[in-house]
Amino acid sequence: MCTAIGWQGKHFMFGRNLDLEYGFRERVTQVARGSLLRFAAMPPVRTAYAMLGMAAEEGGFPLFAEAVNECGLCAAGLYFPHSARMRAAGDMRKGERAAEEKAAAAGDIQGAEGAAAERAAAAEDIQGAEGAAAERAAAAGRAVAPHEMVAALLARCADTRQARAFLQGAEVVSIPYKNYPVPALHWLVADRYGCFVAEPAEGGLRLYDDPAGVLANEPPFPFQLHNLHAYRHLTAAEPACGFGMPLQALYHGTGGVGLPGDATSPSRFVRAAFYRANSRPFAEAGEGEGRGEGEDEADVAEQDAAQMFHMLSAVEMVKGGVLTEEGRPCYTRYACCIDADAGVYYLKRYGSLRAEKFTLHRQGAEEIK
Length: 369
Known about the structure:
By secondary structure, the chain is of the alpha+beta class. It has a domain at 2-218 and 320-359: Penicillin V Acylase, Chain A (4-Layer Sandwich), CATH 3.60.60. The protein contains eight helices and 18 strands. The protein has helices at residues 89-105, 109-122, 126-140, 149-156, 160-167, 221-227, 265-278, 297-313; strands at 2-8, 12-20, 26-31, 36-37, 45-46, 51-56, 64-69, 74-79, 87-88, 143-144, 171-174, 185-191, 194-201, 204-209, 214-215, 331-339, 344-349, 356-359. The strands form four sheets. A seven-stranded antiparallel β-sheet has the order 3-6-7-8-12-13-14, with helices on one face. It has a six-stranded antiparallel β-sheet with strand order 15-1-2-16-17-18, covered by helices on one side. Strand 17 (344-349) and strand 18 form a beta hairpin. The radius of gyration is 23 Å and the shape is globular.
């Protein structure tokens, strides 16, 4: 279980809690601009943009849980175990073979180009494979394995508009990476210009605008957004008295009575949406704790990061508070905040009081081999 939030402060901030009962050898990972990524069902690509995020500690491909690229585009994959529907790899290959046979029988040049692309790839002639397979990939659609999604988007897309265009007509294919099981995920994609959710469903990948700017887990996103109607009365302000008597509020926060506090996905979605909607930048003018003289842009950006961590803490899971069916504690293993404008990744692990800081190197980051 996880929660992700996109929020515009002085800088655009993107945060997520990673809630699991186990680790996945995760570490903060950078991928340099121009690095070669080999996909399971798409032609290899050289990254147009550098990337920084949390990934599984595996050589060969960055298995990102969440990341940002140097343009400020952010993406995160969240657990979606019951509703994710992916195309079987066998079905995809059968369709490809049928299309190739039909193209060959008709003397289709594109079919010949597809065969040439496979030969080029087999010979590790990457440039030949990329060029010859481009038309075949466009005709056959974009088939992305779930573990590839974050890297596939951030490697080639500069903003949410380009990310949506890339995902139009794409399909998520059930292909594992090495010995890892195929993860059932949906994704939050956001930058300072927009925010949307991508969910693999029956009939293909569905894209939804996300005006709430948050994502959790099950049920599917349309339910989560519709469920907010039941909480439209919530307010950060003190509500008016409805009894016709001069009753006074006995304490602050009565406008939030009814805000769900449990750890289920719908409750975390509501809570995250409420705090995001009412969150005020730490450095907001006119407040005593706001930006003072001598504070530079970096100070203000770190205050925005601190504010994001406060929002994430409202939906974090305490170790021991939630147990799986096997009796294992599911808890927030880490919380992260990405300053998308500055290319900075802040990380707080469960057992630590401090936040680690990592900076995206737009040139010269070590390439994943």
